[in-house]
Design a protein that fits this description.
The chain contains 13 helices and 2 strands. The protein is mainly α. A two-stranded antiparallel ribbon has the order 1-2.
């Protein structure tokens, strides 16, 4: 088990918490659409911060746990990048003003951290008590990988969640946004703005992402500290990455297939681990299956990083990716951004 100095764990959470707080205050005090340069500098800062933390993990815990952190961070970051497209579609569908999208994303990241923190605590408790849960995690990841490989579900973003539809009917709501406010006044009555629906939709989406990603990283490490910090670093900078990538998301045509392969690989790894520590009485008489191999952390890291690199390079050089058309909703969102910029310049 991972045994870090208390000061290192507490210090890590304090420093990272302060960075997130400063980032949040900057968004609240100055809502705007960041330039490519600004977004790029922030993403570079957060990636560098993650690499520095990885170096500290190698120094304080050794190669095994340091490797687990890097593998977990790369996996979670890759899954987060893939999920960015869904966030882009949500923003475009609800016509969220570009300068307020940073705030929405920041709220989404905070919701994601809270949800994932709960999932990680529950997962750690269950894993400690019941080793057979790895069979379930492994089967779930294999099913998720197969589903993602089918390229199905693209139209799901177009169908409104039944819960959201019900909220619209129950809660009085205005038709238009009022800046970044949750409530406004229409005809002398206080009503909620569409920003409430956007926050709820982002929260529900984060919940679905957590259900997929947490079993995946528990397949790479059973340390709650590594699981949470890897998730934290994957989410930090995600807001800026959203603006940096933009239309490039449509060009990464092989990313979904790469993530499908990674999830399947981790699913197999989990099943093999479950067999290795097997205690179920109806499997091998409740005895450990000694021939089941344990895949080393650095093999996992090499497979994950190699798969992502191959997918990105293949996407960028593919003629199919070069001719890929931007989603119509994203084109309209970009046009709105240009119109807003022109109006601001005119003022």
């Amino acid at each position: 088990m991972l045994d870090l100095p208390v000061w290192f764990e507490v210090g890590s959470f304090v420093v990272l918490g302060l960075i997130l707080l400063i980032d949040l205050l900057l968004v609240i005090r100055r809502p705007h659409e960041p330039s490519m340069k600004e977004a790029g500098l922030w993403v570079a800062f957060y990636v560098t911060l993650a690499l520095v933390f990885a170096g500290a993990m190698f120094a304080f815990t050794g190669a095994e746990f340091g490797g687990q952190f890097v593998a977990g961070w790369v996996t979670e970051y890759s899954l987060s990048i893939d999920n960015l497209f869904v966030f882009i579609i949500i923003m475009a569908r609800f016509s969220v003003p570009r300068k307020y999208q940073q705030e929405v994303l920041m709220v989404g990241i905070i919701i994601a951290l809270i949800l994932r923190g709960i999932f990680i605590m529950l997962g750690a408790i269950v894993i400690e008590q019941f080793s057979w849960v790895f069979y379930i995690f492994g089967a779930f990841l294999l099913w998720t990988a197969w589903k993602q490989a089918q390229d199905e579900g693209e139209d799901e973003e177009d169908r409104e969640n039944p819960l959201i539809a019900k909220i619209r009917k129950v809660i009085p709501m205005s038709e238009k946004f009022d800046g970044n406010k949750l409530r406004t006044v229409v005809d002398g009555k206080k009503v909620f703005t569409p920003m409430l629906i956007v926050f709820i939709t982002i929260g529900l989406t984060d919940l679905l992402f957590a259900v997929d990603s947490i079993p995946a990283i528990f397949g790479l490490t059973q340390s709650p500290f590594i699981v949470f910090t890897a998730n934290l670093f994957a989410l930090m900078g995600l807001r800026q990455l959203y603006f940096l990538l933009g239309g490039l998301m449509n060009r990464l045509i092989y990313l979904k297939h790469a993530l499908s392969f990674i999830l399947a690989f981790i699913g197999v790894k989990l099943v093999l681990h479950a067999m290795h520590v097997n205690e179920l009485p109806f499997i091998n008489g409740g005895q450990h299956i000694e021939w089941a191999p344990e895949i080393p952390t650095f093999v996992s890291l090499a497979v994950i990083v190699g798969t992502i690199i191959v997918a990105v390079v293949a996407s960028l050089v593919s003629s199919k990716a070069k001719t890929a058309h931007l989603d119509p909703r994203l084109e309209e969102d970009a046009k709105k951004s240009l119109r807003d910029a022109d109006l601001t310049d005119a003022e």
